[in-house]
Amino acid sequence: MAMAELDKRLVRRDHRLIQLLDPPFDKSDLNPGYIKGYVPGVRENGGQYTHAAIWTVMAFAKLGDSRRAWELLSIINPLNHGGSPEEIEIYKVEPYVVAADVYAVSPHTGRGGWTWYTGSAGWMYRLIIESLLGLRLEVDKLHFDPCLHEDWESFKVHYRYRETVYHITVLQSRGETGETSVTVDGVKQPDNVIPLVDDRQEHSAEVRIAVR
After folding, report:
1. Which domain range does residue 25 map to?
2. Which of 45, 93, 122, 196 has the most CB atoms lying inside 10 A of its own CB?
3. Hey, which residues does 138 pair with through a beta bridge?
């Protein structure tokens, strides 16, 4: 399925959920396995399976579509299911943890399930840190490939590497030419990564991202 078609067909903005598939397996002769045992629109059988919803946002970030990636993050962010008593009554689970699934069938549309006991929280963490903020650790090097919100000018990270702290400022400039540049303690890094050294000192780093 093309990404535009996926957005049109599976993103339910009215109920703040992203369905895994549509239509559900309830009338087909094909047997997809155990998911057919769920009620249509619940969990993997046509509801929001949050692992996959997060991977969808990661895919848009990988494509560099920051507008859509941040919008979809807002849709699946559990905090945005608990902004009012009415929303809490629909969601019915804790809005401060990630739910493994969200129902997409009436009369339970928008209801969360399987909170706390879910790997979706770990994927949400990776989505925000790696796919959107762009921080990626490889052994003793910190790489940056962010997909920032278009309204952001900068953000700061205080990154601890063993017993050493790196104070990192990431700056985004739109409409400018150029490439990513990285400096550590005022010294430009030729490979645009932060080399991590555990010298028990504090270091300042600056990452500049030019977005056309």
Report:
1. 3-127
2. 45
3. 141
